[in-house]
Amino acid sequence: MHVPLISVDGNYIDGTLTNYETIGYTSVLFYASWCPFSLRFRHTFEALSFMFPQIEHVLVEQSSTLPNVLSKYGIHSFPSVLLVNSTSRVRYHGPKDILSLVRFYSRITGLKPIPYYSDRDLVTIESVGKPVIQRQHIEDEPLLIFSFVFICLRLAIYKLPHLLHHLNNLCRSYIPHLNLEIFGETRQLIGRILHMLDIRRAWAKLRLYKTKNFHKGARNARVWASSLASVSLGESSSSRST
To answer: Region 89-101: what's the mean pLDDT?
Structure first.
């Protein structure tokens, strides 16, 4: 006889596990409604409740549980499965596929799934109904969409500086080669023009021209000064003879 899944809050499960006196086992799934992996895993957990009707299966949502209760039972990530009896509490640490969980149940409790399923049957059971359940939860849980978008934005903000840094290095490595290819012919043309003009020779001619003009100006100045002196002496001698 199949016992349906039971949803409880953190206070209830804490009181139950603290004073656990039930004969048999209880499997507790701690999940978060905003976590896509938790929503997917609920289908697997429900399948386990059909295969192990001797085990009570309980659901505990993260928002209804205080952090100290989660820490008390070692729940630091979602989804997490805790298998409890009157003498022990065992938290599952393996893969979240149904085949691994069936082996975990059988190893801890000594029970076998009812009815018996082969490994291929278990894989088929796990895959059936997943798309429908995921789509239904997305429609019923709009916060899941916002959570997914928020996670994507956080990843984008974290990765964007690294991406821009690599893009900057890529541009620096390719742009100099690109400039040489684009302006190579222009630089060759400028080099030919400078070679034809021969700036050094033109500058030497200009300096020589300035030097010649300077010497010529100096000679003209001496001639003009001597002429002026001769005129002055002539005027002085004329005034004396008078």
So the answer is: 91
SS3 197: helix
Domain 6-139 has CATH 3.40.30.10: yes
Strand-pairing partners, residue 6, are: 58
What was the pLDDT predicted at 105? 94
Q: What is the pLDDT of residues 116-161, one digit of tens each?
A: 666 565 656 555 544 444 444 445 556 667 677 778 777 777 776 7
Q: Is 196 exposed, middle or buried (0-12, 13-18, 19+ CB in 10 A)?
A: exposed
- Lookup result for tokens 């796990």: 126
Question: Would you kindly state where each structural domain of the chain is located, as residue ranges?
Answer: 6-139, 141-215
DSSP secondary structure string for all residues of 97-120: SHHHHHHHHHHHH----SS---HH
Radius of gyration of the chain (CA): 48
Helices 142-197, 36-51: inter-axial angle, 10-degree rounding: 140
Mean pLDDT of the chain: 73
**Please, which residues have CB within 8 angstroms of residue 223's CB and are 6 or more apart in sequence?**
none
pLDDT of residue 239: 47
